[in-house]
Amino acid sequence: MNSPSTNSPFSIWVDADSCPVEVRQIIIRFAKRLQLKTFFVANRLIPAPKSTLFEMIIAENSQDAADNIIVERVQTDDIVITRDIPLANRLLEKSIIVINDRGTLFTNENIREKLSVRNFNKTLFENGLISEKNSTFGKKELNLFANCLDREIQKKLRKISIIR
After folding, report:
1. What is the pLDDT of residues 76-94, one digit of tens each?
2. Where in the chain does DSSP place strands (E)?
3. pTM (two decimals)
4. Domains of the chain listed by start with CATH number
């Protein structure tokens, strides 16, 4: 199925609230080069290029509003970029490809462990036992993301060319 309002074979959906600018720039470059419709979903305006390839969807300012829009509108062949592990879990239940902004491909095999670690750390943080963790984000993580996104896009394009 083609993605909404373009001839794009699939779309990229970005949970844009916490997506680093450098990651958004990589997504934009891939989308322009391959003519892929890209949706940026957030509860505030996120800068995006003026083009029919890019659409900014502003969700209401409530918990999970942006997540719910993505889950409701994403198509089976689309790719989603998010660091939100519970959202990734919801998307995997719909058989959607999900990548975080550090180049990790979420799978049915790794999501339960990631949810468990996330929930454990959240409990520790809420009880004041650990401070909020801000891991570094540099060239290595950016390269891992770009490579993962490229790999998943190429898999989808090969699959589409076999089907046609």
Report:
1. 999 999 999 999 999 999 9
2. 11-15, 37-42, 54-58, 79-81, 97-99, 105-106
3. 0.85
4. 11-108+135-163 (3.40.50.720)
